[in-house]
Structure formats: structure tokens, C-alpha cells
């Protein structure tokens, strides 16, 4: 007997529940119901498309944090070949909340007089790593890195620079971890040093927010020449809950905080904080890992090919210009 | 008063001093006597000022305003303020208990500053420097677009003129009313410091009470020397946030300047009274290193 | 036999294999059956060899000789040994329970090696590499002038030919019979690696059981990737020295490969059977990075 | 009443005891005995000169470890001006067993067409720090640094490089510390990284063994372009006691181990491991800090002025040549 799928539906996806149930029922029957099932699946897709094209900011927050949302390692394994994970900061420990290593990006294109060559591009990868269940999340500290995570990332960035490989960072964290050990070992120092170092990197650097872009913890690996965001991911200086409880003195006002703080991909594109939005499959990235990976892979290739035209000096200047221009003020 | 540049303010203050008691004194409760936050002893306001606002009894360091700090650090008559008329913009139309635009106006009125930092050029024991001084009384020293822009400008000026940069931090972190833009100031200021570093321009960061959040996690921690005032609270997360996260009390002295020194994040913890002398020695070293 | 270069040894071994059972087998007690050091299970010697000397039951990694390691790592018929005739000199006239010069002779006879490392060039899955392999059975893999010189030579060759360097370490540390000169080999080898690093030539360090002392505190820890075999003891001080210093028992797993991985010193802990494949992936990355 | 001086006499200095006692007695008397005292002091000096010109290696070990021997900070304060101590590794902690900072070396000379200029040279200092009594020694961990000490030293070296200041290191340690924390935080990694980094330093670098040069812990800050040694200091791959108990299976054979391992300044000069021996005052460095400091200061100035002629590239090449040539072997 076929098992019922382990679906995690968000509050606003509840309208889908009935349709899913119908499909499940049809599948239990002895007769061939594949035609009916197909029709139902189409209706689900239409409904999903409908729902996901009208999400409120707080609903996007929920999608961005979805327990089944593809993680950094999920995407790495789908997008790249021959991933070699590298561990440790060479100082204190290996932080499971931050992963990274070497990999090959297949299918890159280079134009030359004779036409186009297709080749595998060596890249250095870094990213925060969440778990897909509670046990994994505990091991990964819910994607909240300690200073040693940021120092591991920095080690990998310097390695990339030495060997002239582009860097791709995957951002997915509620924030850098807050705790006694993190403060003792210099969480602020680690992030600050990463920011300064990223500014000076001589290789192409692309950062992609794939879920939660939580404040300094996200930015700590996020100063790419290009910053991309998955359609239903968020990027903010503070979580909507944190913002609500500090500024509105009421954690329940998180939906309002999400609204006014402008943390969705569309808002950030408008403010030029990010460069491109990467489309998600119908129903969100968790509904189709492969399609998500495909979309991200294409975006990486496009931007890498753009950045390949810049010299080291130009890459640094490009990055400086980008961040130099951030801010709104008047001068009179 | 909001649109007063610092040199004008010094001028005004000089006139006021000559005319009678400075009106700024009025915002200290009781005017003449001040109770020490730490040891509770009553100190004659004039004595406290003469001692750079350090309690003569227990050594507690009261907060200094940006202007007081500049007076205590830069040689008299040598300070020139830069970009005094940069103002924040309420580009999100952000309203919490009050609209952000009103908050800014109120802070301007209260402090006589345009935002939470003053930048400028001046001399320290005769050595030309670029300096930035944050002021906690302007919205808790929070970093928004203006703080980020001014730190970047003074860094660019130092790069251009090849003079050392000194920044006194005092900040509760990012200015949430500017959303993601406040976060991006961490990237912007650190990028500016990256250029200074590549050009071997010295940068001295002095952390005063309190320096937390995005300020600590960007320019404040990036000094060629990191210096702190005794007892200053310095951290990534604020102590309350950490207590909520780990659900336990924090040990005494946690996140204080001496704690950071012990944990390798700060080179020197220097009393306010010795700070200028300490800076002079360091600047003298760098000045001579650049010559040879 | 002491003066036999490795390619000659391979040749000799090939002939012996064709002629009948290899004489080297005789130094394994009982010849046919070997008891696992860890799980005590009896393993048929041929099976152990076929499994790269990893216990099929518990995964315990027996030590490999330099020659066995090269066979397991470098593509057949591609290895060329370099500087096979470098010999230690007893320049201090050092005598402990035996004169140093006699110790060297004995080790040469026992191992068929000139000192505790073999270096050479070869291919790994078709990628040209320089390789150094230490042999613990030569005076505990201790590093004296010869080890230092050979590590330096192979590094210089890799620099010259722009090919990656791979070193398998297995060492008890410095060779005390060479006094301060053994210490200076740490400086010498690290200086050679500094040149490789500046030239962006990849260097992979693989630490096998045991790697301690001056070897760990120089070239073994300096890989662009640090790799280790499971369960390998890796440390600065040996466990006995530490126990004597701190006067307490060490926790289980202390200084083992997995411990170092947890503490951020090792990138990859790789089983012997997967090592060559792992190295191939890494080398492939670097080869392509150099091209683009 | 004048106090008796707190003298620490080594076993082989015992012949001096009687003379010291006589002086003490004379000082207690009411009459003016200064002439007699002067004579006795002369006899002491002669005897000291005699004793110290014939020290055995194990006796030199004792002088090198003398509790009253000037420490790194003692010497820094006597040789340099305006020392600014810098603390911390920006990673984990500040290690009191390793000190360092910025200072000015007065009285340096530069030749130019118009003659000689005298100037203050900015230098970066690092060194292991022992205590002068038990309490201080506990604080300083007897001069045995943890990984964070080596990482602090590395931070200072990189700072020196960035600002083009020469580096002077003072070596005085029984060795890098052996303990659980030291292993956990990568003692071997820290020392190894320092060795590689020192090899590539673009500024003049002088290392001076002022007391105990204990193995990798000493070398970890000791790869100068020039390596100097105080006359009665030692430098070895293992302590005589360690060597005796491991190789001779009897810790009491330390005098023999000291002998055969060649660990004194004269031995090391012969082997070209060091470049110069700095004379100590009569009776050893602890008998006259000022003279010791003066001698060290002169040596530093001489070698700095030599090294000032080399470009960054030449400094690195000079260092490479120096360490490249270390070793004795045959090739047939
Ligand atoms: Zn007080
Ligand atoms: Zn077994």
C-alpha cells in the first residue's frame, strides 16, 4: 500500500489540503484513477500559483523558514559536481552551522573566436547549514554559526583567492549565534574581519540568499559582487519578531514589522540591495528541489560569466562601488 | 540648532561661557552635584568635568558627548568638522511609537547634532588625524545611513591625505528604522577600512561604553589597534538578548572592556585621562614607520 | 640493500613476486595470519594486503611502509624516486644506547630506505604530482637533516614544475640525535612551503598514525587541505608527555584524527580505501583552477 | 640599617659567598669601610670572571634559567622607548606568556651624503615572558605560550609588515606549553603557521635568544634574518632533562645530555645556527641589567643597519638561504 506523503502545509496553504486528501483517497482505490489524479494535481498547481503570487511579507517569512526548504548542502549537491567539504577554522573548531569546500560547476560557457566552449568551473562554496528536522537542526545549531564558522568561511575565501577560484556563498541563517562562547571568542570580530576581507577579495564573488538572511550573521558571508535572492527568501537587519518586540513592544506585531521593514526580495531589489530575484518553483522551493537548483545554477553561470570579464582590481572596485552607494540621506 | 556645524557650536559655546553658565549644564539633574552611577558618591559637577567625567572616587567613566570627546582628544583650535549637514532620510516611512522623521528631529534638538556621529580633521599632539566620534545620546548611537556615510567619508579623506584615522565608538547597533540599509552600513564602512588597510594607513578604534551590535561587528573591531575605556560594555549581542537566548544569568564582568582584553579582542584598556597620551605614542610610531 | 633506489626496489620486488613468495612477508609474525591491533581478530595476511592493510572487521588502519603507500597512491609505473642516496651524517658523534651512526645503518638494513622519507614524482589518476612519504619504521619517522632536505627538495621541484605537492606524514617528531639541526628542519621545510604558497602551488598534507612533534608543527599542518587517516594520532606533544605535564589521564579519542577534525585542524578524515579518490577530486579542482 | 641584598647564587658560584658575606659585615659596621669594600668587590669580579669563563654546558643552562635573569619586558623597557604593549590574538585570548607591541629604538644611525643622521627606529617587538618570582611565573605560565600566544605574535608580525617596521623577537621559553587546551586549539598548527609566515616576512627580522631557547616553542618566533644569542643562553631541540630521560633513560644524565647535544651559544655559532654571540656582563646578565640591555641594543642596531640595505625581496631571499642551508648529510 502506498504511504501517505509527509506534507508540511503552512497556514495559508490550507485550501490545498482538501485537494491533497482527494488525491490520497483516489490513490487508495483499486481502480485506475490516474486521469482524475492528474486533473486534481493541475488544480493544485493552479491554486498554488494563485496563493504564492499573493503572499504577504509574513507569509514569505514562513516559506523562507520552511522546515522542508532545500538547505545549502541540498543545493550544493544538486548544482555542483565533485564537492569536497573542507572543515575547520584552524583555530578552535569546526562549526557545523557553516559548511564549505571545493566543487566544480558544470556547463559553464566561454566565448572564443571559434565559438563557445563548455567547461567545468572550479568554485569555492560557503554557506550556512540548517537541518531538515529537529535532530539535524540541533547538530547544525539551526544554521546559527559561531565565530569559528565565520573564520572557516574566511579561510575558504582566502584559499579561493590564492587559487583564483570564484566564490559562491549561500545565505540561510536566523543570525549569528548569541551566546557566552560566541562573545568570548569574538563573534563581532569574526564578522567584522569577514566584511573587510570580502571587500578586498580579488576573485568573483556571488552571494545568494536561499532562505533566511538574518542580519550581520547573513552579511558575514554575503558581500558578493552580485547578491541574488530566491523569490521567497528574506533578508533583514532584525527578525520581524525581534523588531516587533523591540520597536512595537509586542511580539505579535511581527506581521506588521515584516511589512514595514521591507525584507522581501522584491523590496530589496527595489532598494538595489540585491541584483536579481531567482524564481522558485510553483509552491515554493521545497516543492521542487531540482527546479530550484536549476534556476540557481543558471543564475550563477550568468553572473559568473559577466564577472569573468573583470580583472582583480576591477572586481574589488566593483564591489566597493556597490556597497559605497548604499544609504539614503540628505545633505543641505 | 540642528543645522549648527561643530565649529559654530564651539564658537557659540565660547560666547556662552563668557556670558555666564552654559545652558548645557541644565540637562544634568541637580546641576551642581552629580551622583556617581557606580559608587553613588556625590561629585561636584565642575570637578567631574575637570576630570574628563571620570568619577574621582571609583574611576567610573561617564559617557562623553561627541563634542566633549573631541575637546578631550584634539588639540585646541585645530578641529574642522566635515559634512556637518548630512541628515537621515525616513525612506521607509517608518513609524513605531513615533514616526522616524520625528525621532530624528527630536534627537537633533536634544543633542545639537545632525546624527549619531561627528567627523572631522584635527591634530593630536601636533599629528594630523581624521577623527570620527559617535554620540550615544543621538538615538542610542545607532548606525543608519548617515553614520555609515560619514565613517566612509572620513576614511576616504584619510586615504586621500594619508593621515591616520581614529574612531571613538559608542553605539547600540544598527538603526532599525532604516531596515536593511542600516545593515548595509556595516558592509560599506568595512569596505572603506579595507582600502585604508591596503594602503597601510593606520586606523585606531576606541570603544567606549557601550559599543554593541552592528557597530562592533564592523568598524569598531577593525582597528590596527583596538583600544577600550575601562568598564565599557562591548559585544556583538546585547546582554539581555543573550540572557534570553541561553536562559541563564551572565557572569559578572561579561562583555566589559577587561573581559575583551582577556579574550584577545582589545589591545589596550586605557583610562580616559591617559588616552590622549596613549594615542600620541601609537601615532608617533606610525608616523615614524611611514617615514622610514 | 641500503643503497637501493625505490625504482630498483620495485623492480626487485616484481622479480621476487614472479619467483615466489616475497621475502618481506617474513617479518610479519606468523606470516599468514595477523591479529588486529584493535579488535584482535585474526586476518589472513593476503586479505589484509588486498584491503590496503585496513582491518576488514573494525577498520583499524595498520601502518604502511613508504613503498606500500606509494603503490597505493601513485599510478603504476609512473613513480620516479628523487634523491634516493641522501644519508644522515652523525655530525655530533651522538651516542645514546648505541652510536647514531650504527642506528642509521640498522634502520637502513631493516627498511631498505636511506632515511625516514621517500620523495619522487609520479602521477595520480593521470595528474602529475610531487610526493613525499614518510616511513615510521625508520627511526620512528623522526625528522633529521635528510628528511628536511628531501621535503625541501621535493617542494622546490614542485615549485619549479608547477605541480602539486603531496606529503604523507608519519613521524614521532624531531631526531634528537641531530640536536638543534633537527629543530632547524622545521624552519627549512616551512620556508620551502612558504614559497609554494606564494606561487599558488597546491600542497596537500596527509597525516597518518602517528604524526607528532616537529613534523606536525611544521610541514604536516600546513596543507592547503589537511587530510588524515581515521584514528591517526596527531599532536604537538605526545600523549605521555602531556599526561606527565598535567598529571591527569587524557580523555578517550584525544589527539586522534577525528578529534582534530572536530577542533578545526583537519579538513577531511578519509579512510585509506577512499583516499586516492579524494585526492583525485581535490587535484582535479586545483588543476582546473590553474587553467582558468 | 641597610638590608642584606636578596642574592640568588648558583651552586658553582658558592666560592663568592664568603666574599659577599664579608662585604655585608663591613657594611654593618659604624666606621667607613668603603675602601675595603671596593677591594672586596674587585676580588668578587675577578673570581666571577674566572668562574664564568669556564662554565660547563649544564652550568650555562642554570644561568640561562636564573630566576633573576632579565626577562623580555625587563630588556624591552631598558632598550626601547615608548613601548606600547598590544594584547590578544583576536581569536581566543591574550596569552601572558607571550608579549609584544610597538616601540622606538633610539640612537639608530643612517649614513647620507651630508654625514650621519641619528634617528629613532620604530620596531615591533615580540617575546616570551617569564616571571621573576613564583607568582609572576604562574601568571606567565613560566614563559610557555599557548597557541594564542603564537597567534598574537603572528598578528604583530603581520602588522609590522603592513607598516614596514622591523621585527625584534626575544626568545626565552622552556618550550611551547603541553596541555589539553594547547592541543585542542592547535599548538602545532600555530607554530607551523608562524614558521611559514616568518619565512615570507618582507621586513628585517632579528631574533635574540636571551635565556632558554626551548625547541619549537622558541623557533615559533625565532626565524630571524639574524639570530643572536646572549652568551649564557641555550637553544635546543629538547631540554637536557628531557633528552636524558628519553635517550639515556635517566634524568640525572642531564649534564651529559647538555654536553653532547651542543646547546650553548658557542656550539651554535660554530654550526652557523646563530650569527652572533652577545656578551654578558661579568657574572651573567642578571648581575647587570643595564649593561646587558646596552649590549643587546648595540647588536640590534648593527644588524638592523645591515639589513636596512636589503629590499623586501632580498630579505625574504636572505632568510630562505639561511634556513635552506641548515642540515648535515651526505649524498652518494
Ligand atoms: Zn564613582
Ligand atoms: Zn580490527
TrEMBL record, chains A, D:
CoA carboxyltransferase C-terminal domain boundaries: 39-306
Keyword ATP-binding: yes
EC number in record: 2.1.3.15
GO CC, one annotated term: acetyl-CoA carboxylase complex
Keyword Lipid metabolism: yes
UniProt xrefs under InterPro entries: Acetyl_CoA_COase_a_su, ClpP/crotonase-like_dom_sf, COA_CT_C
Principal localisation: cytoplasm
NCBIfam families named among the record's database cross-references: accA (TIGR00513), AccA_sub (NF041504), PRK05724.1 (NF004344)
Family classification: Belongs to the AccA family.
Protein name: Acetyl-coenzyme A carboxylase carboxyl transferase subunit alpha
Natural source organism: candidate division WOR-1 bacterium RIFOXYC2_FULL_46_14
Automatic annotation (TrEMBL), chains B, C:
Occurrences of domain CoA carboxyltransferase N-terminal (ranges): 32-292
Domain of life: Bacteria
Enzyme class: transferase
Gene3D superfamilies: 2-enoyl-CoA Hydratase, Chain A, domain 1 (3.90.226.10)
GO cellular component, one term: acetyl-CoA carboxylase complex
InterPro entries per record: AcCoA_carboxyl_beta, Acetyl_CoA_COase_Trfase_b_su, ClpP/crotonase-like_dom_sf, COA_CT_N, Znf-ACC
Cofactor: Zn(2+)
Pathway: Lipid metabolism; malonyl-CoA biosynthesis; malonyl-CoA from acetyl-CoA: step 1/1
Recorded catalytic activity of this chain's protein: N(6)-carboxybiotinyl-L-lysyl-[protein] + acetyl-CoA = N(6)-biotinyl-L-lysyl-[protein] + malonyl-CoA
Cofactor descriptive note: Binds 1 zinc ion per subunit.
UniProt KW keywords: ATP-binding, Cytoplasm, Fatty acid biosynthesis, Fatty acid metabolism, Lipid biosynthesis, Lipid metabolism, Metal-binding, Nucleotide-binding, Transferase, Zinc, Zinc-finger
Subunit structure: Acetyl-CoA carboxylase is a heterohexamer composed of biotin carboxyl carrier protein (AccB), biotin carboxylase (AccC) and two subunits each of ACCase subunit alpha (AccA) and ACCase subunit beta (AccD).
This protein's name: Acetyl-coenzyme A carboxylase carboxyl transferase subunit beta
Gene: accD
